[in-house]
Design a protein that fits this description.
alpha+beta, Aminopeptidase, Alpha-Beta Plaits, nine-stranded antiparallel β-sheet, six-stranded mixed β-sheet, 30% strand, elongated
């Protein structure tokens, strides 16, 4: 217990321990939201709480900083609730049981919520301090980030005047995130018709692939079984007439599909089998490094009479899949190695009346995301189909000229004696939603202390890293004059 009482920096960890004593999982944020409101009321700080429990707290500039540009400090108040099978804690009703293991803070048997409770604690410590020098602080605490950034999406920004933001939701000290992808789920519909047909029925399978997250692993050139299946069906159809009975692979737009199956009636079974064997050899060679486990197989299920796609529908389905864009479309010219624009055909399905293809479309540049959607619409229209969209979220475009980044880098270099790593991610962050709400007028940097095992019961927060990151935050504010 004495270790918990002596954590440094005390001003940050005192607030963090208070936060950990309050249940604050996603969709269970009313209590922590009210705690933030009370913090503001006790200090006579301007504050706003909305219907979904987002909170904004404002502290005016200290002496000498009245004319300095205001800064947003931003983090989310919800946490992922995960626990071991042995844990008896009701995370919806009870606080966490904290422990210290050397330089690491943890919660016994549960997630710790360092993601993103440490951001909330640092923002509160900054506003609570009577010694810290800073511009006007506009602290934004959002809810339900962990289940789709719902709080940031709902937030009314009319109370915000700042265009500079310090987001504290990164998990690697020394890495500054300065851009993220926006995205949208696109679902293409291709109308089909069926007719009764008899013949030998074959099951064709593309499998053995690694899969992965379509944002984090799209640059690894792994195979997508839905895309490969289009190529397989095209090559079979070149050798023999086929009618497609079933076709499907994947369930989520943002997962690189690992297995796709098709059932087809083939006019010449031997030619189908030969085409599959040849494609298996070719694809194995093409993916020998990126996805060495890939396998394409076929098996005969006997003579059947079924309602399969008619010839025109087979043509439309194969044409669509053969021409579907996939994978990396553009690399960033500003940040080496960063995927700027991509898409993933994550889920493919066939019903009696339509084929559906569901994509995760991502880009840090909104116009390029839109152009990719236009390409999907054009392809779908060419085969008599359409595209519908859902779940759109804006990207955070890299700024070549960023005062916030320059100040943060300068302060980091003075404190650490080395340059930080400047990074962008090909996935969504709350910064992207704020950029969208502010018409792109956001000059932001995302930082944070070292954490491990985030979102699991093995979560750990580095105590020395918190101390260094807190010092960095204070100096960034001080230097933003």
């Amino acid at each position: 217990m004495s270790e918990l009482n002596n954590l440094q920096p005390k001003e940050v960890f005192d607030f963090f321990k208070q936060i950990c004593a309050i249940p604050h999982g996603s969709r269970n944020t009313k209590q922590i939201s009210d705690y933030l409101v009370k913090f503001a009321e006790d200090r006579n700080l301007e504050h706003y709480q909305d219907d979904v429990n987002n909170v904004i707290v404002i502290k005016e500039a200290t002496k000498g900083y009245e004319k300095s540009a205001p800064i947003i400090i931003q983090g989310h108040m919800d946490m992922v609730c995960d626990k071991t099978p042995e844990s008896d804690i009701d995370m919806a009703k009870e606080g966490l049981r904290l422990g210290v293991d050397g330089d690491w803070l943890y919660a016994e048997g549960t997630t710790l919520g360092g993601d993103d409770g440490i951001a909330v604690a640092m923002a509160l410590a900054a506003m609570d301090s009577s010694e810290l020098q800073h511009p006007r602080l506009e602290c934004i605490f959002t809810v339900d980030e962990e289940i789709g950034m719902l709080g940031a999406e709902a937030l009314d920004m009319s109370h915000i005047t700042a265009e500079k933001m310090l987001n504290i939701d990164s998990e690697d000290e020394g890495i500054f995130t300065v851009s993220c992808a926006g995205g949208v789920t696109a679902k293409a519909f291709v109308p089909v018709k069926r007719a009764e047909v008899s013949g030998k029925l074959y099951k064709v399978t593309v499998g053995g692939l690694l899969g992965g997250h379509s944002g984090q692993e799209i640059d690894k050139e792994r195979g997508n079984s839905n895309i490969i299946m289009g190529r397989v069906l095209y090559n079979i159809a070149k050798k023999t007439d086929i009618k497609i009975l079933s076709l499907g692979g994947g369930v989520a737009d943002n997962a690189i599909c690992k297995k796709t199956e098709a059932e087809v009636i083939a006019a010449d079974g031997k030619k189908l089998e030969d085409a599959v064997k040849e494609l298996d050899r070719v694809i194995k060679h093409e993916f020998k490094t990126a996805d060495p486990g890939v396998a394409i197989t076929s098996s005969c299920e006997g003579d059947k009479t079924v309602k399969a796609l008619d010839a025109d529908s087979v043509y439309k389905v194969i044409t669509y899949l053969m021409n579907s864009p996939y994978g990396i479309q553009h690399m960033s010219m500003d940040i080496e190695g960063l995927v700027e624009t991509s898409l993933n055909l994550g889920a493919l399905a066939l019903t009696d009346t339509e084929m559906t293809a569901m994509y995760a479309v991502r880009s840090a540049v909104e116009t390029r995301r839109d152009a990719l959607c236009d390409k999907l619409e054009s392809l779908s229209a060419a085969v008599g189909g359409k595209v519908e969209y859902s779940g759109a979220y804006p990207g955070w475009e890299y700024l070549a000229d960023s005062e916030m980044r320059d100040t943060s880098v300068r302060v980091y270099k003075a404190q650490y004696g080395e340059e930080p790593k400047i990074e962008a991610i090909h996935a969504g962050l709350e910064c992207g939603l704020f950029a969208g709400k502010m018409d792109g007028k956001i000059d932001a940097v995302s930082i944070g202390p070292d954490m491990t095992g985030v979102h699991t019961s093995e979560e750990r927060l580095s105590i020395p890293s918190v101390e260094r990151t807190w010092k960095l935050v204070c100096e960034i504010l001080k230097e933003s004059k």
